[in-house]
Amino acid sequence: MKSTTNLVVGVAALGTIGAAAFGATSIASTPTSGAQVTLAAAGAHSPLPQDPPPPAPSPAATSTPAATSTSAAPAQDVPTAEQIVNLCNEYTDPGVPYQSKVNLVENGINQQQGRIMEHELKKAQQNGNFPETFTVADLQSTGPNMASANVSIAGPKFAGPVVKYLVFTNIGGNWLLQEDAALALLQAAAATN
To answer: Which residues contact 68 (CB under 8 A, 6 or more apart)?
Structure first.
């Protein structure tokens, strides 16, 4: 009888392990001896251990004269809100030639893009769009060397802040605007009413 009970328990355990491999979260089997065997699939549908909570934001908000921030960087693998604000200020500065901004965008800025960019920013400056302010929210890692944030852009000619979802990439230790993010930021900053 003992060998039959061991056989039943062994088959139940193998069946449970096999079911777990196919995504079942738990299976229970009651062998003839009355003992219950329960196994759960590791990670199939059970919650994974959580990372420790991020450090609380510092009491002082990250800001520059033309910027404010509503979130601090939650981890080391994302830029700080201040870095994003500085990047946005540098990229949209109408007084700086595009050649000085090439290193702010992933894959750079070609001559045609640069000339259009300069034209649009100067037109926006003449329209009275500047000074503009940038506020960073929802800063998060989106993968290795990648981050995203919602950036609100406000200025004297904006009816209200314009929010753009921007993606950033870290290349060689420097956070840059991804190409699509650079275009979205330029369009928002240079918009004329």
So the answer is: 61, 85, 133, 134, 135
- Per domain, the residue ranges of the chain are 2-40, 67-190
CATH class of 67-190: alpha beta
Give every CB contact of residue 169 below 8 A, 6+ residues apart in sequence: 106, 145, 146, 147, 175, 176, 178
Alpha-carbon distance of 177 to 94, in angstroms, equals 17
Q: Quick check: 168 and 148 in contact, CB under 8 A?
A: yes
Q: Say what the pTM is.
A: 0.61
- Read off the pLDDT of residues 155-165 as tens digits, 9 standing for 90 and up: 998 888 999 99
Contact 3, 22 (CB under 8 A): no
6 in helix, strand or coil?
A: helix
- What is the H or E stretch that residue 85 is in? helix 81-92
